[in-house]
Amino acid sequence: MYSLPQLRASVWSERVTAVEKNEVTFVPNTCGKQLAIVNGYTFYLHMKHKSTVSWLCTSWGKCKARFTMKSDGVIKKVIPMHSHERPMFKIINGVFFKC
Length: 99
Prior knowledge:
By secondary structure, the chain is of the alpha+beta class. Helices cover 17% and strands 41% of the residues. One of its GO terms (molecular function) is zinc ion binding.
């Protein structure tokens, strides 16, 4: 059995690893805006700078999860902890649809 801190550390580690391994899927939503999907969580493009792009969780206002990616695709910063369950969605013909 794992203790609660060990489980939290394990979940945190898995989420960081997925982003660091660039296991990020990019898909357009129905409006054509780009979304990033990591471990079943969705992120929207928050800010685009000369050399970095910031992605925030789509449950903005209540969730602090985010990541920053350099223009060459390298992950610069990750805050992986979500304060909610994964959203329900489908990707049909390469387009994101919220359920």
